[in-house]
Write a structure and sequence with these properties.
alpha+beta; Apoptosis, Tumor Necrosis Factor Receptor Associated Protein 2, Chain A; 4 domains; 5-stranded antiparallel β-sheet; 4-stranded antiparallel β-sheet; 19 helices; 21% strand; flat
Length: 392
């Protein structure tokens, strides 16, 4: 037997102004396929097609084995929301379509680009038991709690043996002669009380209340720390299939901190496609710069920190620039001198120029007799030698 569940998801993509006339009629652009949660591998995507003959841009929803669907299309910079319509035509592979006139799009292009977001609601058929899970908490009501998880000033009552069942970390903590084994509580750090409550409630069999990708990531962080497979097994795919421009920062931070290699690889692919939109999100600018450095290397096949510096400078990621320039400013080595000179002069980084000149003046013979110095661009060498004789 089967039942129907409703799944919500969204995708954001960028449209270039040139693309309105780039494709011939009948040709189209597509977003990457996204997995439909709980569907055992079914996928959906958005296809969009500009048709110059009637000055309309069509947005299509394509989904596998979906019974019914709804799609709303929003355009960044416009207050217009497009409601899609369905079709009974079995000869087409799309199930929803929306259209917008070129004249609506043209005013909202910024730097010849605009962003379109498609929010979809998909009804899929799943086995009747798929959405069912044991409500363990109902079987524990006759047993008083005997332990507390302390998060800041808040306390969460739990069953100590239950913690041992779900977490080998808690089990080891209680098994050996530790302060926790002799106590009736343990302090939880680095995770909020709401997250801990949601995680433990989920293990007890309660439904997550209004889950978002960000809240799922927080729960997964807690589960990763305490090795709770009852959480990670069913939830670990959700960040990958629900990734968006808005929640990207939380997901990539989790993937990096918890060494989730497959998820981090998915993040690098997503970032490469959506860099212009992601870098505008405030939370992205607050990520650890070491993380973003690794992200840029993987996403754009950048081999060295100087490659990253150039990319970060061109794309305005100045917090990454500051992070990578600091060790050069603090203690420039002879090995880094030559690539630093090229970068500093290419991008007019005056503080770095001064550091390079200081090293040149201090070790002139050693610096100028190496092959790397001879290979520097002539105009840079000439300017550097002139400046080295001044009080730059």
């Amino acid at each position: 037997m089967a039942t129907t569940i409703t799944v919500k998801d969204s995708v954001t993509f960028t449209v270039l102004k040139s693309q309105l006339t780039e494709k011939k009629e009948g040709e189209y652009f597509e977003t990457p396929k996204r997995c439909i949660p709980f569907s055992d591998g079914l996928k959906w995507l958005v296809r969009w097609s500009p048709v110059a003959s009637d000055y309309l841009c069509y947005v299509y929803l394509v989904a596998e084995q979906v019974t019914t669907a709804n799609m709303r299309v929003t355009i960044d910079g416009s207050d217009k929301t497009l409601m899609a319509f369905g079709t009974n035509d079995t000869s087409v592979d799309w199930i929803q379509c929306a259209s917008v006139h070129y004249e609506v799009l043209r005013p909202v292009f910024k730097n010849d680009k605009l962003t379109i977001t498609c929010k979809v609601q998909l009804d899929i058929s799943v086995p009747l038991t798929m959405n069912e899970k044991p409500h363990l908490f109902e079987s524990c009501e006759h047993m008083p709690t005997d332990f507390e998880l302390i998060v800041g000033s808040d306390r969460l009552p739990v069953h100590k043996n239950f913690l041992s069942f779900i977490s080998p970390v808690f089990h080891a903590m209680f098994l050996h002669e530790t302060a926790e084994s002799q106590s009736e509580n343990v302090e939880i750090t680095d995770v909020g009380f709401d997250t801990v409550t949601a995680a433990i409630d989920y293990c007890y069999g309660r439904q997550l209340q209004n889950p978002t990708a960000e809240s799922i990531v927080d729960i997964l962080r807690f589960a990763d720390k305490y090795n709770i497979k009852a959480i990670t097994s069913p939830l670990e795919k959700i960040p990958m299939i629900s990734m968006s421009v808005e929640n990207f920062s939380a997901i990539v931070h989790y993937a990096y901190d918890c060494s989730k290699e497959a998820l981090f690889t998915e993040c690098t692919n997503f970032y490469k496609q959506h860099e212009n939109d992601i870098k505008k999100v405030e939370k992205f600018g607050k990520l650890p710069p070491q993380l973003v450095t690794e992200l840029l290397k993987d996403a754009f096949s950048l081999n060295t920190n100087f490659d990253v510096l150039r990319h970060a400078h061109k794309t305005g990621l100045m917090f990454v620039v500051t992070y990578l320039e600091k060790p050069l400013l603090d203690s420039l080595t002879l090995e880094d001198f030559y690539p630093t000179v090229k970068y500093a002069w290419e991008y007019s980084r005056n503080d770095l120029k001064k550091v390079c000149l200081d090293l040149l003046n201090a070790r002139r013979m050693e610096v100028t007799t190496k092959k790397e110095f001879v290979n520097l661009p002539g105009e840079i060498v000439l300017d550097m030698m002139k400046l080295s004789l001044t009080d730059y």
